[in-house]
Design goal:
Helix content is 31%, strand content 24%. The chain has 160 residues and is α+β, with helices and mostly antiparallel strands.
């Protein structure tokens, strides 16, 4: 009886498997890459988050200090101010950015990001009020940042 030679198994991929994988990668790149490289979307998300944090900070600062805090949003950016005499007077005292060297708490919208202008302030209980009339907000206020939207709830001032 003669011994049969031991055959080793071939390792690797077939040509069909390689072509299928390359086609799948090509389809994923064609669909995903335009979204990945659209920088404006990332700028909108980042600035929307920044503005949301500024609104939340303004509310918390009003409660912590007992002074009304105004958030002014223009087409070019936002700024936080407090009243000169805490609960009366004009909103002309700039809120200091925490951990800064005395610069005001403000931000400029990145190029290409559009903002809807609005102004509101938080009273000492953290409730949002209309800056024009001083009345409590009775409906949710939306702040549009490009294709994104932030909402400030009436009575509670919850920002989401």
């Amino acid at each position: 009886m003669t011994a049969l030679p031991i055959q080793t198994a071939q390792r690797g991929f077939t040509l069909i498997e390689l072509v299928v994988v390359l086609l799948l990668v090509g389809v994923l790149m064609a669909v995903g890459m335009p979204r990945f490289f659209n920088q404006l979307t990332f700028l909108e998300w980042g600035f929307s988050d920044e503005l949301g944090e500024a609104l939340r900070f303004g509310q918390k600062l009003a409660v912590a200090t007992g002074c009304d805090t105004q958030v002014t949003i223009t087409a070019g950016g936002y700024q936080l101010n407090q009243r000169v005499n805490c609960s009366s007077g004009a909103f002309t005292l700039p809120v200091q950015l925490p951990g800064s060297d005395g610069t005001g708490y403000q931000g400029a919208a990145p190029g290409g990001v559009t903002l809807a202008a609005t102004t509101l302030y938080f009273d000492t209980l953290g409730r949002p009020r209309d800056s024009g009339s001083g009345n409590l907000l009775t409906a949710s206020t939306s702040v549009t940042v490009g294709s994104r939207s932030l909402t400030v709830e009436p009575q509670t001032g919850y920002v989401h």
